[in-house]
Design goal:
The complex is a heterodimer of chains A (119) and B (174). Chain A contains five helices and no strands. With 119 residues, chain A is an all-alpha fold. Chain A is extended. Chain B is of the alpha/beta class. Helix content of chain B is 56%, strand content 9%. A five-stranded parallel β-sheet of chain B has the order 3-2-1-4-5, with helices on both faces. In chain B, helix 1 packs across helix 2, helix 2 crosses helix 8 and helix 5 packs antiparallel against helix 6. Classes of the chains: A mainly alpha (119), B alpha/beta (174). At the A-B interface, helix 3 and helix 4 of A face helix 1, helix 2, helix 3, helix 4 and helix 5 of B.
């Protein structure tokens, strides 16, 4: 396939799957896809670099020598977690959220009469 | 300064992005967008909130550096006296327990000092949630008006939030 840019094998596999979808399935996919998440104009390289540098400094202040072998979630190391398929990672996060408190269990805070309202 | 509620999906992508940055791993586009958004919050361009439910998840991971960095940049939105009532109404419109809680907190939530009522926008990567919200938005607005006209100030001025992807939030802030 030649579209003037280098395309990763994973993208080509997804494209191949899409081509085999029925019309209705393609429509469903269209409703679920993030329309602009991969647009290069969303975050400039400068803004990305600035954010990355800030958070590198912030995380560096808190710990030295991070390793991919450090424990992360559910007994997995960072290396193992990064290698998970998205649906496998989804399942881990779902498990983490399995016992979150309901609204009824949370304390009620009084709101000031001059509270800020959304613009 | 606007107030945005980052939902669980955005919190997760941000944590993953922070973990990758710390370990010099490449970032995926969603992680770049979420990190850039959190950075905008850190620069005081908006106040970032998470739900108490997200906090509960984060507390289970609180030993992780990236979770501590994330929690240092956000506040936790709190329940007020009408949050639960609105939550029950939202269940009647087919929202999941989790989505109803997010919408009710973003409409009738406050900070620890009681200094806000609701947020300007919920930031989420959950596209079916955004779609479901927009499908029901007119009806929800009508029900909210019917409920709030009986309430004292400031609750009578409560309004539905916007539901945006992180990219939209960045565009609004630029």
């Amino acid at each position: 396939m030649s579209i003037g840019i280098s395309v990763s094998p994973r993208v080509l596999r997804v494209l191949s799957l899409i081509r085999h979808l029925e019309t209705q399935e393609r429509s469903q996919l269209g409703q679920l896809l993030p329309p602009d998440i991969t647009s290069p104009s969303v975050v400039s390289e400068e803004a990305r670099a600035e954010a990355v540098e800030y958070f590198q400094d912030e995380t560096r202040r808190r710990a030295a020598s991070p390793s991919l072998e450090d424990p992360f979630i559910a007994g997995l190391t960072y290396r193992q977690y990064f290698a998970l398929a998205d649906d496998e990672a989804d399942a881990l996060w779902e498990d983490l959220g399995a016992e979150v408190p309901s609204l009824e269990e949370l304390p009620v805070i009084e709101v000031r009469s001059d509270a800020r309202l959304p613009a | 300064m606007p107030a945005y509620l980052l939902d669980k999906s955005v919190a997760r992508r941000t944590i993953e992005g922070l973990a990758r940055v710390r370990r010099s791993q490449p970032l995926y586009p969603e992680q770049v967008v979420c990190l850039t958004l959190l950075y905008a919050g850190a620069r005081d361009r908006f106040t970032a909130y998470i739900t108490p439910q997200s906090l509960h998840i984060m507390e289970r991971l609180s030993a992780r550096d990236e979770v501590r960095v994330f929690l240092a940049e956000v506040e936790v939105i709190q329940v007020t006296r009408y949050t639960r009532r609105w939550d029950r109404r939202l269940h009647e419109h087919g929202f999941t327990r989790e989505d109803a809680a997010i919408l009710s907190l973003s409409t009738f939530g406050t900070d620890l000092a009681g200094g806000i009522l609701g947020v300007d926008a919920v930031i989420t990567l959950d596209f079916p949630f955004i779609k479901n919200f927009h499908t029901h938005k007119t009806t929800l607005n009508r029900r909210l008006r019917a409920m709030t006209r009986q309430l004292p100030a400031p609750f009578r001025h409560a309004s539905l939030p916007e539901l945006w992807q992180p990219t939209r939030a960045l565009a609004e802030l630029s």
